[in-house]
From TrEMBL:
<feature type="domain" description="Late embryogenesis abundant protein LEA-2 subgroup">
    <location>
        <begin position="94"/>
        <end position="179"/>
    </location>
</feature>
<keyword id="KW-1133">Transmembrane helix</keyword>
<protein>
    <recommendedName>
        <fullName>Late embryogenesis abundant protein LEA-2 subgroup domain-containing protein</fullName>
    </recommendedName>
</protein>
<dbReference type="InterPro" id="IPR004864">
    <property type="entry name" value="LEA_2"/>
</dbReference>
<feature type="transmembrane region" description="Helical">
    <location>
        <begin position="27"/>
        <end position="48"/>
    </location>
</feature>
<dbReference type="GO" id="GO:0098542">
    <property type="term" value="P:defense response to other organism"/>
</dbReference>
<dbReference type="Pfam" id="PF03168">
    <property type="entry name" value="LEA_2"/>
</dbReference>
<keyword id="KW-0812">Transmembrane</keyword>
<keyword id="KW-0472">Membrane</keyword>
<dbReference type="InterPro" id="IPR044839">
    <property type="entry name" value="NDR1-like"/>
</dbReference>
<dbReference type="GO" id="GO:0005886">
    <property type="term" value="C:plasma membrane"/>
</dbReference>
Length: 249
């Protein structure tokens, strides 16, 4: 009698009897994995909502030697090719800032460039990395511009004697955040940047000088310069066809 009660007492104090130990272990592991995934999902949601938006500032613009404001030269060159469009390349230097405590690695992308609500080309964005809490990262991007459209719009704007010019850069860039070299799920940054300035004698003189001498135009020297970038963060990646494919140069 005492032996039976002692054996029953031992089985009650144990978590599982020997025949059911494997089942209890599986349930314990399943519960642990479920809690781990739930905690990770909550942390990712909190992380995305608290992610600070990176900042980009255009510093200099430099046109290549093929750019010309001559409409006759543009029409002659474009007329020589069937359905061809003469294009020029502008080199743009951006300063990138990352206020987050994590690194951000951007993938290559193409952004649309428009002027006076008309598309004039596309910007080729290379893949680059922003270290945590960095403010001195410079990124060189190249804008492929349809020279005929740029010349036509500039002549139209100058003849209309408008006092304000604005360049708009729109598109999406896929990125991946990193914590201690550990990659996190991808995010997408949707950009809508507007760079504008007033037409003044200085702006017109410096712009023409930069185009004719092929020297870089430093935007900080221009008066009344404004740079506004709207950035939206999305966990879903929506791939779009590159605008560079639409330009036949």
């Amino acid at each position: 009698m005492d032996h039976g009660s002692k054996k029953k007492k031992q089985s009650c104090h144990g978590l599982c009897s020997p025949p059911h130990s494997a089942t209890c272990l599986c349930l314990y592991l399943l519960l642990s994995v479920t809690l781990l995934f739930a905690s990770t999902a909550v942390l990712l949601v909190v992380f995305v909502t608290r992610l600070k938006k990176p900042a980009f500032y255009l510093q200099t613009i430099q046109m290549d030697r093929s750019f010309s404001l001559s409409t006759s030269g543009t029409s002659n060159r474009s007329g020589g090719a069937n359905n061809g469009t003469t294009c020029s390349v502008a080199s743009l230097v951006f300063a990138a800032q990352n206020l987050n405590g994590i690194g951000i690695r951007y993938g290559a992308a193409a952004l649309d460039v428009s002027y006076a609500n008309e598309s004039v080309g596309a910007m080729d964005v290379p893949a680059f990395y922003q270290p945590p809490r960095s403010g001195n990262v410079t990124v060189i991007m190249h804008a492929v511009l349809a020279q005929r459209n740029v010349t036509r719009l500039l002549i139209r704007e100058l003849s209309a004697q408008r006092t304000y010019m604005e360049i708009r850069i729109v598109g999406s860039i896929d990125a991946r955040t990193h914590i201690m070299n550990f990659p996190l799920p991808k995010v997408q940054f949707s950009l809508d940047c507007r760079i504008g300035t007033n037409y003044t004698d200085m702006v017109l003189r410096e712009g023409i000088k930069s185009m004719t001498t092929r020297k870089a135009l430093v935007l900080s020297t221009l008066p009344h310069l404004s740079q506004k970038c709207s950035i939206k963060i999305d966990m879903r990646s929506r791939r779009k066809r590159s605008r560079l494919d639409d330009l036949v140069c």
